[in-house]
Structure formats: C-alpha cells, structure tokens
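Standup notes
- DV: blocked on the single-chain target, sequence here:
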Amino acid sequence: MVKPQIDEFNAWAERDGWSTRADGALDFRSPKLRECLAVWTHAAAGNPLPTRADLTPRAMKTFLSNVIIWDVLGGETANRYRLRVMGGQPQRIWGGKAGDFIDEVVPEPFRTRWHRLAQLSLDLRAPLRCHGIVQFANRTYFQSETFQAPLGGEGGVPDAILFVHIVEPKAYLPTAQAATDVPLRQAGGSGP
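- DV (later): unblocked, structure below
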C-alpha cells in the first residue's frame, strides 16, 4: 500500500530531521511483527478494524511484551492520546505508565512526531510498518521496527492504536542512509 499520506508523512519526517519512516508495504523483518500482522488481520475477521476485545493477551502472547496501546480521545481541535498498556520492552526504552496522556509526558519535538505518526495510522485505518533509529532520550544506539494499526470502537470508529515495537541495538553503520535499512535480529528475544 503506497498512499499519498505515507509519502507526505515521510517527507515531513525528513524535513524535521526524524529518521523514522512509514511503510505501507508491511514487509516486516521481525518474525514477531509478521505474527502480529497475522493476528491483527485474523482478529479483524472481515471487519475493517479489529477491536481491543478481538486481540486477547492469549492471541498476542508471542509479542505481548512489545505491545503499547494508546486510547484515542477526540478533542475539540485534535485527538489526545492516553497510554492504556505498555509492555516491558518499550517500558525500558520510553518509560511511562497506564493513564499518562502523551501530550503531558512526552517532550517536544517527540510529542509532535508521535502525534503525527498516530494520526497517520488513524487516517489510513490500516496497519503500517515504521522503522528508524530511536532518537528519544538520546538512545540513538537503538534501531526500531514497529507495527502500528488502529483498533475499532463503537460503530467502527477507531478508539485505540496498537503499537508493537521491536527495538534492537544498532549495528555499526558506515553511512546515515544505511541506518533505516539494517535488518533487525531474527532471533525471538529482542530489546535492550
């Protein structure tokens, strides 16, 4: 899936100096993320979006420690996002706890970047693959690959976003361009 919104997001991210890129092709390198895509697709079962209830912990057991779920709360001018679930792997990288509002705990420029990425997922109403170098909290020695997709609420309107985040130590990269193209380890145990 190549959509203008993805190209627009990637152009904006490059102008902003952010290494993360969105990719609608869903060609995940991580086996956990390939499994996540299969679980999400199966949970949708012919509906446009699966709900949170469709994605049980049992269904997500192979990647549960990598899960992040944000509630989507419609505001008068923009959505707000509240952290609902944070697995152990992303917790070690970003911190945060259930109930935190992203706009209250994430500093700029990351807040704007994360909000734009979340909005892209909501606009597309489809899964995305994102990849890049972690820049949060000066942890640029990590690379990441992420599955993200909206979850449906009442009437099929997205009320949450599922992120499954794989973070690996970055291999030596001879050029900055190669940074987003380094394969993640294929072994099951990932993260710091």
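- Follow-up: The mean pLDDT is 83.
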